[in-house]
Amino acid sequence: MKIHLIKTPEYELEEYLKVCEFLQSFPGPMEFTSTEYEFDKKDFYFLRYELYPHHPFKYPANDKALPYDPNRGTPLSFKELFSLCDFYRNEEKISSTDFVILLTNRKNGMNWFSAFDQKNNVFVHTAEWEFYTNDVSPKYPVAYEVVANTIQTLMNLDVTTIPNEFIHQPFKACMNDFCQNKQEIIIKLSNARICPGCIDRIRSQNVSDDMLAQVQDIFKGIQSEFDFKIEEKPLSPSKVVVHANGDIELLDYGINLNLPSSWKALYIFFLKHPEGMLFSELEKNKDELKNLYKICRPRVKDAMLNSTIMNLVDADGASFRSAKSRLNTKIQDLLKDPRASFYIIDGIQYNKFSINAASINKLVDIRC
C-alpha cells in the first residue's frame, strides 16, 4: 500500500525529508513515498498568508464555522486542506486505494493535530510540537500522526461522534485517545501503544499482521526517543578550511565536504557571511555567488553560470530550499549528530540563514 507524503510550501523541505526518511527506514506493506512537488500559491489562494483576516473560510459543517482568530495563526479549514490532497491525487493520478498525506505548518479551524476524511486523505499539523515534546525532534510526532491516521482510516473510525468505543476520552494511553487537552499527546507518544480493544477492531477490518508489525516497529522507534538518556559530552567543532580551488575541508575531522559546485558556492557564501543572510538578500549578492561558483567550477560556461545562480536566488525559493536541504542531508550523513549541527545551514523562511561554525571566526579559514 502506497502512502504519498506531500507538503504545503511553508513547511521546510529539510524537515519534510527527515519525516520521509524516518518512515522509509521501516520495511513493510506501507510504502512511504516522497516528492518535491510544490503547490502554486497562485492556484491556491488560501496558501497566501497576506489574505488574512479577510480570508473567505470554507469550513464544512463539522468545523462549526469557526470565525477568524489571529491567535490560531491563519488557520485553514478541513475542506481547504483536503482539497490539496484531492488536487495532488488527481494531478498525479493516484489510485483511490493509496493514501495522500499532507504535512503542513498551517493550523486548522478545529486546532487538531491531524485528521482524515475517509477517502484516504490525511493532513498532519507539523508545527509547535516543541510545546508538547520538549527536546524530541518534531519528525517523530509527525511520523506518529502519519501512521496513526493511516491505521485509523483503515479501521473505519467514527469521527462524527466523539468520544466513542474506539476514540477514547478520558485517555487510555492508546493511539486512539482523543487528547482534547493537547498536553496529553505526550502520553500517546511516549507509550506508543494500541489498546487490546482497538487491536481487535483493526484486525476485524482486515489489516494484516505484517502491517501491524510494521506499525509496531515504527512506534517502537518513536518511543525510544522518549526514553531516559544520559547526555554525552559535547564535541568541539573543527576548523573549516576553504582552499583556493573551493574545496572545503573540516581540518580536525580529516573530512572533505565533497559537494556539487553550486552547493559549494552557496556554502562558502554563508561561511563568508557569519552574520547570516535573509533569503530575500541573496538576489542582491548574486555576483558574489557567481564568482564563488566560477572558483568551484572554473570551466563553467557563462550561460550555465548565469542560469544556475539565477535559479538559486529565484524569488519562489524552491531551488534554494532544495539545495539547502540536500546539502544539509549530505553533511548529516557525513558527520552524524551532534557534530553535524555545527555545519548545517540553519534558519527558516523570513529569518536569517547562517552556519553555526561561521559565527566563530577563528574556526573559518577562507583562502579563495
Automatic annotation (TrEMBL):
The lineage of its organism: Bacteria, Pseudomonadati, Bacteroidota, Cytophagia, Cytophagales. This is Uncharacterized protein. It comes from Aquirufa esocilacus. It comes from the Bacteria.
